[in-house]
Specification:
alpha/beta, 204 residues, seven-stranded mixed beta sheet, 8 helices
Length: 204
């Protein structure tokens, strides 16, 4: 891990350890990185198509990703907070969701959660296995955990958690880190698809 830091140039590594915490807010992320060395490997492979790390693989965008992401962003434009998601199975949209936190008095009603709940309300949960979830914002740890529990095969997001954190509060744990903490996880992650369009919703 020497010489590798997820946290940018503000951080100077300490001699001997190769990596030292740089403030309380980053301690947990630092500790997680220490525990999950494979997670760092995953970050290093971000732009490589489907190279393995523990729990999750990074996957390059597919030609069809932008069209589905536009649907997720359209959901986000209608949401209480501008987050939207669609679930795609065998090339077809099978569920949609948008943040309904205020509407339903439910802080867990994130776009991804709403899309999953709508799907399982009418179809077998097993049909989510291998499906792709498109979301305008990188899944938070709650949503990413739900995605993993449901066995989805791929998640595609627009804006990253770090980008979203410039707009509103976020739990600073990446979808990759959550997946890498799940030994059973077998999911591909693609980020940055139409990120600027998703972030622009925060200015409306
Ligand atoms: Zn969420």
């Amino acid at each position: 891990m020497i010489g590798i830091c997820r946290c940018g140039p503000r951080h100077a590594a300490s001699p001997g350890s190769g990596h030292a915490p740089h403030g309380q807010s980053n301690d947990r992320r630092w500790a997680l990185s220490r525990l999950l060395g494979a997670g760092l490997a995953g970050v290093a492979l971000m732009n490589a198509p489907r190279q393995a790390s523990a729990g999750a693989t990074r996957m390059a965008p597919l030609p069809s990703d932008e069209a589905f992401m536009r649907l997720a962003i359209a959901e986000a434009a209608l949401a209480d907070f501008p987050f939207g998601a669609v679930i795609v199975r065998e090339g077809a949209v099978v569920s949609t969701g948008r943040n309904l936190g205020r509407t339903t008095n439910d802080p867990t009603a994130h776009g991804e959660m709403v899309a999953i709940r709508r799907f399982v309300a009418s179809r077998p949960a097993d049909e989510l296995k291998g499906a792709t979830l498109y979301t305008s914002g990188e899944p938070c740890p709650m949503c990413m955990s739900a995605i993993l529990w449901c066995g989805l095969g791929r998640v595609v997001y627009a804006a990253s958690i770090e980008e979203l954190a410039t707009k509103l509060g976020q739990i600073m744990l990446s979808s990759q880190a959550v997946a890498d903490a799940a030994p059973f996880a077998n999911i591909a992650i693609t980020g940055g698809v139409l990120a600027d369009e998703a972030l622009a919703l925060f200015h409306n």
